Amino acid sequence: MRVPVVDSRGVPLMPCTPAKARHLFKGGLARPKRNKLGLFYVQLCYQQQPDNQSLTVGIDPGSAFEGFSVVGTRDTVVNLMVEAPDHVKEAVEGRRTMRRTRRSRKWRRPKRFDNRLNRKKRIPPSTRSRWEAKARIVKQLCAILPINSAVVEDVQAVTRTGKHRKWNAAFSPVQVGKDHLYGLLCKMGLTLHLKEGWQTKALRDTYGLKKTDRKSKQSFESHAVDAWVLAASHSGAKKPTCTRLWYIVPARLHRRQLHRLQASKGGIRKPYGGTRSLGLKRGTLVRHTKYGWCTVGGFDRKKQTISLHVYRSNKRLTQGAKVKDCRICTWMAFRSWLVSLNSKKGGAAFPPAP
């Protein structure tokens, strides 16, 4: 495994070995850091003129899970397995229902007959969230690695007519979404290469790699293997030098609502949603005196307490934690951990257990 390196200005340099990183730390020439993905990298304490080789990122899109792999001419830098966002469609439907219900109560307010989105190029919210999530991952990787090209598996869009109407005949959410992704990657300055599904299968056979049928398995063979063969087909790598996997889950912040959809005991509708809990941003990584490493959730207005959750599973630990008992570390837009090789489920705890 290679460790990403940036200089004091934040300019990405060629990744180094873990032994080299430890040597830099002991000599006081670098300091450890983590980016928004939770990936560990090294920042030098001095400026360095970049002399970088070409690195390629391979992207294997998926509906539930996605694979990313950064490969050089010989070594494998990092492999990622990311959960794709799938909550946006239900969230938009719930927001629309509450808006129309509130509109029916506010009957004195005149209707808005003008459709503000009419005749405007627009991507459906669920499609936009899924494909822009891939671009955000690549953007965070480009911030710590000198990536100059991307190889994406070109998903074939299914076009068929619906019942009693021409739905999806000349339009497909998949086609619109992937075109949007390709445009974002080109704006990042990456050279884009496309491969079809049958070509990915042929590349796996060429490299002698196999893919598992268990899509949710946290292993290199589930999704990262396709991303690796895509990147290696352009970079020229012969075999994967590292199959360790980072598992990444995007943080979900619930939209602020006037109240909960279901009233609690006594007919009281409590406030719900938002991004702040007693001055802390939700999802902030803290260390509690009793529960150790955990993340911040909601809060109780009356008791002035916050809820804490397990870092990996997001399972709630308590609703009665005090802010003064928490040591604030950082906020990360993604929860991530390095998958263990010995565990069947996979996953070595990060942050380290207290």
CA distance, first residue to last residue: 25 Å
- What structural class should be given to the helix and strand makeup? alpha+beta
Mass-distribution shape: globular
CATH superfamily of the largest domain: Ribonuclease H-like superfamily/Ribonuclease H
In quaternary terms, these chains amount to: single chain
Output the radius of gyration. 23 Å
Strand order of the largest sheet: 9-8-5-6-7-10-18
User: Taking all residues together, what is the mean pLDDT?
Assistant: 87
Domain count, please report it: 3
Biggest sheet statistics? 7 strands, mixed
Flag low-confidence runs.
346-350
CATH architecture of the largest domain: 2-Layer Sandwich
CATH level 1 name of the largest domain = Alpha Beta
Q: Please name the CATH topology of the largest domain.
A: Nucleotidyltransferase, domain 5
Helix content: 25-40%
What amount of the residues lies in strands? 25-35%
Number of helices: 6
Number of strands: 18
Keywords:
354 residues; alpha+beta; Nucleotidyltransferase, domain 5; SH3 type barrels; five-stranded antiparallel β-sheet; 6 helices; 25% helix
Written overview of the protein:
- This protein is α+β, with helices and mostly antiparallel strands.
- The protein has three domains: 1-52, no CATH class; 53-96 and 123-158 and 171-250, Ribonuclease H-like superfamily/Ribonuclease H (Nucleotidyltransferase, domain 5, 2-Layer Sandwich); 276-335, SH3 type barrels, CATH 2.30.30.30.
- Helix content is 25%, strand content 27%.
- The chain contains six helices and 18 strands.
- The strands form four sheets. Strands 9-8-5-6-7-10-18 form a seven-stranded mixed sheet. The chain has a five-stranded antiparallel sheet with strand order 16-15-14-13-17, with no helix packed on it.
- α3 runs parallel beside α4 (173-187) and α5 (197-207) packs across α6 (220-235).
